[in-house]
TrEMBL record:
Residue stretches spanning the membrane: 53-86, 107-139, 151-171, 178-203, 236-256, 268-295, 328-346, 367-387, 393-414, 434-452, 458-480
Name of the protein: Probable NCS1 family transport protein
UniProt-recorded Gene Ontology molecular function terms: cytosine transmembrane transporter activity
Organism from which the protein derives: Halomonas elongata (strain ATCC 33173 / DSM 2581 / NBRC 15536 / NCIMB 2198 / 1H9)
InterPro entries in alphabetical order: CodB
UniProt superkingdom: Bacteria
Alphabetized UniProt keyword annotations: Membrane, Transmembrane, Transmembrane helix
């Protein structure tokens, strides 16, 4: 479907983003806007960071290929059946929707946590783009062990990239979508090129003759994804890969952050566009980036467990930096791809963070809040340790927002069927509600206890955590609303009291 006039960005002043009202008919967007946005957002510079981390985590060929196929399918289904139906019915931002459920004070706490998490995530994306700038200008780049800035050149490159990304994000979703639609097709070809080039390197280095799919698979098992784990890094199985792929964007689908994006969709099924991001970005691009780094390991003689352990002890494990990897594979085209890919992912992320903070201070325009958010994100990006620990951070970030996703689903679909009120805070005039706030905090406490005390890895606690949150919110909503009903009935029976204490 072609873009219509209202799908193009404003050329001058930013237009209304409908932060506190449903998106009207004339502002809704076609399928193409979401296809470009999801493909651009999830085919990103961070894929060149995540792919190598799979190699460091010791995945086998079967584990990474099959695990990504399954996990990404589950992610697309989560957008399609959980997020989009509510987004295209209520047509509210996540933050205003939650305010109606949980009250203003609850949302302030949530938005601060949500906005800060988005800033850290977008900061990692700016970090990725800055590694490409570093290759061009030749200043020292961070290593796997660096947590803080290591050169003036690094700080200046992050600052320059961050300011440009912030300007794009500040002009709103239409501008973000337009930018992604331009960049996405070219980036897809570049990531495919990364995979083809690295495969050619492996074929030449191993002397393998690839005459069938079986030959290719044997090469993948024996030379690319060998299952050798680097000490000090997470140790992944197929279950880790499945749950990581499913929950890498848990905050967006199960956590309902993409209500803010999908509220613009004319049809709920437009969310199937997420498959463009999952299978181009989180399948093809992750595998291609993984192969680039795997060849670095192979070329350094790190293909056996003993060699890897010795190299780790000596601090000789190659640094998984997107800029140098892309430059080695495709030169200038690869470097440009890393910079643009970081932009297309950080743009909607900063946009979401701006909405979160703007909901806390609604009297300040979203445009100006997004500018401030982008500057904060740029500061975070100067610390490369965030990007170097991306697997663990993504899991923690998704876990942080997951309980609120369960609250929104239960409030919208289940509570009315139980005879309870949806949007209870708005109905009762409360600025804080115990059911929502209690569900969020108690669920997080239980999940973190499972990680710390029961030794369950963080990648696996979110799924049971969602059902814990759903049960908690249902039970607490019943208790809170029953108490209000009983109090109203008692007041109504007192002589001289009004029988219209509650409003329908």
């Amino acid at each position: 479907m072609g873009a219509t006039s209202h799908e193009t960005p404003a050329a001058s002043a930013p237009r209304s983003e409908y932060e506190r009202q449903p998106v009207p008919d004339e502002a809704r967007l076609g399928f193409k806007s979401f296809l470009g946005m999801y493909a651009g957002e999830h085919t990103a510079g961070t894929e060149l960071m995540i792919g190598p981390l799979f190699v460091l985590a010791g995945v086998s060929a079967f584990d990474v290929v099959v695990g990504l196929l399954i996990g990404n399918a589950l992610a697309v289904l989560s957008w399609l059946f959980l997020t989009a139906p509510i987004g295209t019915r209520a047509r509210l931002t996540l933050y205003y929707h939650l305010e109606k459920i949980a009250g203003r004070y609850t949302v302030i706490l949530y938005n601060l946590a949500n906005g800060l998490a988005f800033c850290f995530l977008a900061g990692a994306m700016i970090t990725v783009s800055a590694t490409a700038v570093g290759v061009w200008f030749g200043f020292p780049l961070p290593t796997l062990a660096d947590m803080t800035p290591n050169s003036i050149g690094w700080v200046l490159s992050v600052l320059g990239v961050g300011i440009m990304i912030t300007i794009v994000a500040a002009y709103g979703y239409r501008f973000v979508s337009w930018f992604a639609n331009i960049a996405a097709p070219w980036m897809v070809l570049i990531f495919l090129g990364f995979g083809i080039v690295s495969l050619k390197w492996f074929i030449d280095a191993t002397g393998t003759t690839v005459a069938s799919a079986g030959d290719l698979w044997q090469l993948a098992e024996t030379a690319i994804w060998t299952g050798v784990h680097v000490p000090g890094q997470p140790d992944f199985t197929i279950w880790h890969v499945i749950f990581f792929a499913w929950f890498a964007n848990m905050a967006m689908h199960i956590g309902m952050s993409d209500l803010s994006v999908l509220r613009f969709a004319r049809k709920s099924w437009y969310s199937i566009a997420a498959a463009a991001g999952m299978y181009v970005g989180h399948f093809m691009a992750w595998l291609a980036a993984s192969m680039l780094f795997a060849f670095q390991m192979y070329d350094a003689g790190l293909s056996s467990e003993a060699a890897v352990v010795a190299a780790a002890e000596a601090g000789r494990i190659p640094d998984p930096l997107p800029g140098p990897l892309a430059d080695q594979a495709l030169g200038v085209a690869g470097l440009i791809c890393v910079i643009i890919a970081g932009w297309t992912t950080a743009n909607p992320t900063i946009y979401r963070a701006g909405l979160a903070f703007q909901a806390v201070i609604p009297r300040v325009s979203r445009f100006h809040v997004t500018i401030g958010t982008g500057l904060l994100t740029t500061f975070v990006a100067m610390f490369p340790g965030v990007a170097m620990q991306l697997l663990g951070f993504v899991a923690l970030y998704g876990l942080l927002l997951m309980p609120i996703g369960a609250v929104i689903v239960i409030d919208y679909w289940l509570l009315p069927k139980l005879g309870l009120k949806s949007f209870y805070a708005e109905y009762a005039g409360h600025r804080l509600t115990i059911p929502a706030l209690g569900t969020w905090l108690v669920t997080l406490a239980i999940c973190l206890m499972l990680v710390r005390l029961a030794d369950i890895e963080i990648f696996f606690v979110a799924l049971p955590g969602w059902f814990i949150a759903a049960a908690l919110f249902t039970g607490l909503s019943y208790l809170a609303q029953r108490h209000r009903t009983e109090a109203a009935m008692t007041t109504a029976t007192v002589p001289g009291s009004s029988a219209t204490t509650t409003r329908e």
